[in-house]
Amino acid sequence: MNDRPTDLPVPAATRRGGWLLVAALAALAEGATLLVLGVLEARATAAERLELGVSTTIFFVGLGLVVVAAGVSLVVGRGWGRNPLVFVQALTLLMAWSLRSVEPVSAALVAAGGLGLAGLLHPSTRRYLDERGRARALARGEDPDAEAPEDAVDGEDAGGEPRRA
After folding, report:
1. pLDDT value at position 148?
2. Taking Cα atoms as reference points, which of 23, 131, 32 lies closest to residue 86?
């Protein structure tokens, strides 16, 4: 069976758009900015500060790729990207506070972080991602309402056997 989220029916009230799109666009803009900063850092790295330049470049590019991937996951209806993006948006707001003396930068960070958090935490976004997850579980033949037994460890069933993927 094909469990691509775009192939699954979703009620019109929770179709992709609105606050989910706001959150995804904020994440994609932040991820693209991090990628650009990584490239600029790589180009500006001098031989006397090579270690710092390389590590900063790797950090910016790596974080940018994660943020872009999480944003894309929201666009295609996969919920895994929501949690890392909530963390990133909270950090964005903290960074805005830290840079409050540079008003244009601080304002841009507040706008991106605030809109991103609002979009991620809005009930329609949560409802959409929940319904997509339920539809994917049903397409795989799983019961989306079944809870794991209390004595089960992550990755194992109640008998201690590894769960099949």
Report:
1. 55
2. 23
